[in-house]
Design brief:
Helix Hairpins; Heat Shock Protein 90; 485 residues; Beta-Lactamase
């Protein structure tokens, strides 16, 4: 689930859950309130029934007490009723007309004429209940033909309105507390629900950055959840791969730079040493005859020309490497351009022991390249075959193939080839398969490096293969269409 969906769901739940909890609490509180009211009603009904029964019992006991042969105040029944009424904080008064005949229970009370008048009117009747003041019950009785009035007093419990008010306040407080708790719990759960999916990927990314920072460029993040962090983790892995590739290139360029300096130093030292030796020979008079002096001067000139050619190639390679070399690509006919290169140098190459055979090339086959640089690239490959031949004569075969968006130019020779481990380095600057570099006359090692830079500039590629049983194959791919054609 994406983080966007999680946020959307959490926002909805933040509204729904507290609302549902509030509704449930209100419903529960309403049911609780109804139950409390019902229970109170039942309790009051039962209590009223009990009180009525006790009042009736007390009145009957009072009649029995007054019918006794002895003084009522001295009877056991009187004492029993007295103790009970005191324990219940109640008072029972028995009137003979308007005069008090007996007082049982708690005697400290306030006069209540209204309650007494109501009871007096019930003489001879079944009695009346009066809830004004402290009077709970009043009844007229007749003992031995003589009328009496019985009044019962006692404190009344908390009124129903007070009970209801306290119950409502209690429910409101509980409801408020439960809603607050529901909101807090929901918020904590949803916060954990969201940030758990954010915190874990951030930890993974942080660990990945730490690994890259410590130089572990091969480290890759493994993340499979289908959310927004998947793209970030994939981008991180791509960044790490490109960073490693960049550092590898930098290290390779640094190594090439070191080899370049070493190569220049080595290849310049040999002709300069020769020039120095011949000049010293002239100065010291070793070349005493005009013929010897002429020979020395020609050797010095040849060595100077070697240095000049090497500097020119080094300058060309540097300009190609910096992208500062003039580049004027155009659509070229493959057969015409390749045969032009061969015919221009064929006689010279034959004299030096190299035979070039060009196989038939389709007339419609064309590629997009700079004609001057293309000629230089092919010439460098032919020169390489000529310089490293292991016999008096070497044969070179050239053919072109259609390769979809590219034209493949294949140049084979029957020379000695190169060691398999040397193939990947063949196009590095100043590289020679002769690792001892004791044959400076075989070239500077810049020719194939320049060719590789030219093909890179075209948008093509170049690689080398050993042939069986012997020989070297150079394969160039040149695009048919230019990027900005």
């Amino acid at each position: 689930m994406t983080i966007k969906k999680r946020l959307y769901i959490s926002n909805i739940l933040m509204l729904i859950i507290p609302a549902m909890v509030s509704l449930l609490m209100i419903l529960g509180s309403f049911l609780f309130y109804l139950n409390a009211i019902y229970k109170q009603f039942m309790d009051e009904t039962m209590e009223e029934s009990n009180i009525t029964y006790i009042q009736r019992l007390l009145v009957d006991q009072a009649q029995e007490m007054m019918r006794g042969e002895t003084n009522a105040a001295e009877s056991t029944l009187y004492q029993t009723m007295e103790k009970y009424l005191i324990s219940q904080d109640m008072t029972m008064e028995i009137y003979d007309g308007e005069n008090v005949a007996y007082i049982l229970g708690v005697s400290d009370r306030s006069e209540n004429d209204a309650c007494l008048s109501a009871a007096m009117r019930s003489l001879g009747g079944e009695g009346t209940i009066a809830k004004d003041g402290n009077c709970l019950y009043g009844e007229g009785i007749v003992v031995d033909g003589k009328p009496y009035t019985v009044l019962i007093y006692g404190s009344i419990d908390i009124e129903e309105s007070q009970f209801n008010e306290l119950l409502v306040k209690y429910i409101i407080v509980i409801l408020f507390v439960m809603i607050v708790v529901a909101v807090i719990v929901t918020n904590c759960f949803l916060t954990r629900f969201i940030f758990r999916k954010i915190e874990a990927p951030l930890d993974i990314l942080s660990d990945g950055v730490r690994q890259i920072q410590e130089g572990h460029l091969d480290y890759r993040i493994e993340y499979n959840s289908e959310d927004e962090f998947l793209k970030i983790c994939n981008d991180f892995n791509n960044m790490a791969a490109k960073l490693k590739e960049s550092i590898d290139i930098i290290q390779k360029n640094e190594q090439n730079r070191k080899e370049l300096i070493a190569g220049i130093s080595h290849d310049l030292r040999t002709p300069l040493t020769s020039i120095k030796a011949y000049i010293e020979g002239l100065l010291e008079g070793i070349a005493a005859t005009p013929q010897m002096q002429q020979k020395y001067m020609k050797t010095i000139l040849a060595k100077a020309n070697d240095i000049d050619r090497m500097v020119d190639k080094l300058f060309l390679f540097s300009k190609l490497d910096l992208g500062d070399c003039p580049f004027y690509p155009e659509r070229l006919n493959a057969e015409k351009e390749i045969r032009s290169v061969i015919s221009t140098n064929e006689k010279e190459y034959r004299e030096r022991g190299m035979t070039i055979i060009c196989e038939e090339i389709p007339e419609t086959l064309s590629f997009y390249a700079d004609p001057v640089q293309l000629r230089s690239a092919i010439t460098n490959i032919l020169e390489n075959s000529l310089k490293y031949k292991d016999e008096e004569k070497v044969m070179v075969r050239i053919r072109c193939e259609d390769a979809g968006e590219y034209v493949r130019v294949v140049i084979d020779d029957n020379g000695p080839g190169v060691p398999p481990e040397a193939l990947p380095k063949l196009f590095d600057v100043f590289y020679r398969s002769d690792s001892s570099r004791n044959k400076p006359d075989n070239g500077s090692g810049l020719g194939l490096a320049i060719t590789a830079k030219i093909l890179e500039r075209f948008g093509g590629t170049i690689h080398a293969e050993n042939m069986n049983p012997k020989g070297l194959r150079i394969v160039m791919t040149i695009p048919k269409e230019g990027k900005h054609e």
